[in-house]
Amino acid sequence: MTPTAPPALPPDVTAAVERAIAAHVGRPGALLPILHAVQDALGFVPPDALPRIAHALNLSRADVHGVVTFYHDFRNAPPGRHVVKLCRAEACQAVGSEEVVRDVCERFGTKMGTTRADGALTVEPVYCLGNCALGPSALLDGALRGRVSASGLAAELPDVIGAGGAS
Amino acid sequence: MSAPVRVFVPRDAAARSLGADAVVCALEAEAARRGTPVTIVRNGSRGMLWLEPLVEVETAAGRVAYGPVRASDVPRLFAQGMLTGGTHPLRVGRPEAHPFLARQQRLVFERCGVTDPTSLADYEAHGGWKGLRAALDLSGAQSVEAVTTSGLRGRGGAGFPTGIKWKTVLDTPADRKYVVCNADEGDSGTFSDRMVMEGDPYLLLEGMAIAGVALGATMGYIYLRSEYPDAERVLTEAIARARAAGFLGERVLGGTKAFDVELRRGAGAYVCGEETALLESLEGKRGIVRYRPPVPAVAGLWGKPTALNNVVTLASVPWIFAHGGAAYREFGTGRSRGTLPFQLAGNVKQGGLVEVPFGLTLRQLVEDFGGGTRSGLPVKAVQVGGPLGAYLPDADLDVPLDYEALTAKDAILGHGGVVVFDETCDMAALARYAMEFCAVESCGKCTPCRIGSTRGVEVIDRIVAGSQRAKNVALLEDLCETLTHASLCALGGLTPLPVKSALKHFPEDFGLERAVAARPGAGRP
After folding, report:
1. How close A107 gets to chain B, by Cα (Å)?
2. From B52's CA, which of A13, B133, B214, B423 has a CA 20 to 30 Å away?
3. Which of A 65-104 lie inside 8 A of B, CB atoms?
């Protein structure tokens, strides 16, 4: 295998990737911790960073690509300024989560599993947040919310409502 | 000036999801305004989740609870003498006296909600580390014997006897062995693992240390799902404190045994709750299910013998070592010994954690503890055991909750999650969702699960659309048979349970005449 020269990365990406590698490279099974550290720092795992990570762990690029794409958590592009993850598992369905999904998409002018064109908001599905007695549940920028509604989320995201997303 | 009054506000994620942090801010502000000193303790949750945030005040007559408290309630609560247990519409009274808690038998959750989760002093003062101290005086074989005697079975869902698993690890010669805690609690309707980790993290660490000491493993890993950031924070702090205090590390409790614990974060794959996929993920690979044999107890993490147990299984171990396997065995029924922390969820009035001995009926759990549905409408179905568990109709709710009784009903107990649905739910949509979920989460290794789940969605769509119904029902049943018998792991193997139970008990939701799908003796009259 003859690896081609890795593409040049922006300096902040390089710095984050190198920090992640340095922090975890000696640990057994270091790939997931490194990917998490990169995403924690940058909000996503830049595909162009994979060759560097593969090299550091003595893995093939295909191996690393395979791992990144297997897990739902890892993004290959930056998310919106706000990320709303709406639970769609059974316990939340029992208390109307599908209506919440519909209402949120309508109110914020976006679709499930996408980032709004203006980059203000990403709405994604999640399957169980462990808050099953207080559903429907959501993660709003990483913070758990119980008994959510579209209007409640809108009140917490005033900068997203009416910010040019609705089409 | 009088000593500060201790006020407890849970740091549990469920309490925080309804504003517990804002309540803390309001309490501090109001206390400062009045010049009344208070000390806020962020405890775990008592598990009466419909009352969260449940604020408790330490009074001369014991702890008095108020809930559900909103930040805006705080000034009035102060005005009505909350700090001395004064009356107020939100006053719950002594939490232990609440019927929801008074009727429970808490072994695993005895400390949860009572103590400050990361306080080592609290943990020790409430019986902590007794099990580990006892285990350090036992041989490996004696420790395994204690677990075998207890009758403890895997609480993650499979119900495999923990004693047999531990014996296999003990008897397999190897230069290294591991303890791995499965904290990938992905089943909808379950949160007992999360509550242990957030509310009593040293209990889990003690259980892991006992396993390590007993089986000769020096390293333990907790594989925690990424959806639990609160648990990650608490565990990270607890591991550091336990290590600094000598409960973990080179010399456990100052003795000759070494055991340490490392926390690893999952990445949003449901299938990684399957033990062999979890091991692959821990090793830094795609979470693809392994062929068995060999079982992980023989060749697990990095090919070494691995005791891979669920959070609640490991959290049950300290009690067994502190009180003896025989004492644990006193609880329960048949071959299901001890207690199980059930989780009441979904459309239920009083949702939360109910730890009781096996043998309670599902109806007692849903009606007596749960108080029926949150919506007030009749119960239509109850799903027991997560997304791979069967939907039981009202007629089946008198089933006793133990592993064998549920198996006899073509259902599973799983991780003890109980999700209630009222009569507005569409069982065909839920059956379709089960197949869709399997398609989304399949690791892709075996064909029945990878392909069959997508075909299942299509066939259910055709049935609901009224296209060649009899033929497509037969096809769906055939497909379910294939998934059941030919899948590599429980994801494909058990997805037919929710699908077939929905079809059997609620054919009208699929647009079918009851007679077409119902088999003799099935469903309601």
Report:
1. 22
2. B423
3. 66-67, 70-74, 89-95
